[in-house]
Amino acid sequence: MPWREQVSAYRTVVSELMCQQTQVATVIPYFERWTAKWPDFPDLARAEEAEVMAQWAGLGYYSRARNLLALARQVAALPRSPRTAAEWREFKGVGPYTAAAIASIAFDEPVAVVDGNVVRVLARLDGVRVKLRDASSAAKLFTARADELVDHKRPGDFNQAMMELGATVCRKGVPDCGRCPLAEWCDAMKQGDAAILPRFVAKERKEATVERALVIRAGRILLRRNPHAAKRLAGIAEIPVLSSLGLEPAGEPVLVRRRTIGTVTYEEKLHAVVPKAADLLRWARDAELEWVAAAELSGAALSGPHRRWLGEWLSRDGRTARGRRP
Ligand code: SF4
Question: I need a labelling partner for 316 at 20 to 30 A (CA). Which of 99, 145, 188, 266 fits?
Fold first, then answer.
């Protein structure tokens, strides 16, 4: 495969995987650091997993980093690189959207990329008013229509233009129809209901509370590293859950933070803990627990929100060293 095509495929894979569930503005510095360090599949294929996870730290959804490394190793070992969307879909972590993006942008295959932005443009353009179950069933529903429209001469440009149109002009809420090149064919604009399209079935929302332990001893912080086989945050360290340390919450937490993942909003209560000798002995037998020097947190593969919370806690005068027993 010509070198340029391969690098283009590599950069597309990296950017598409990084942009899944993460905003573009957040991704840009990560993408620049990543491609400067590993410019092509063979460079990444030679990297250590720990180094890859540390570079990814802060982007979340860490299975993407692991899939990217596995994919680079597989591609680098092949006699010929995959080209079509169907071939790219064979790799773990590469869904229909990413496969179509790589095949159309790097290899000019006329397949449509259908993300949330494209769904919005097509739902409004064609006046689709049925309630859609979720983003993935919506993408499936609109794929045939998008494939029908894709430009066979410049599919990569077409796909990027459609996504950009959805992100900047046919945006969520009130669209900027006066600047839209599709206005003369748009059903929603004619009917005046573009702002409420596409329609989705309302999801049930849930709340949950998580109590965590902030433990520091001799300048080192206690963290729990998820096993590599874990489904969630594999290989990534987190602030341990109190109950997993054999402790109960007592008194007020030193930090309370809320965050929403999917349809669940978590209230994270962080308790500063001074361990007893018996605690230390018990934790020493737990293979997932490790002590990380506070000064080395920036280089550790650590969940993004947890890194932030630790930074907030450590920056508080006096509380760091004292803590208290819950
Ligand atoms: Fe979206 Fe308006 Fe363009 Fe229709 S005319 S596609 S609603 S921006």
Answer: 266
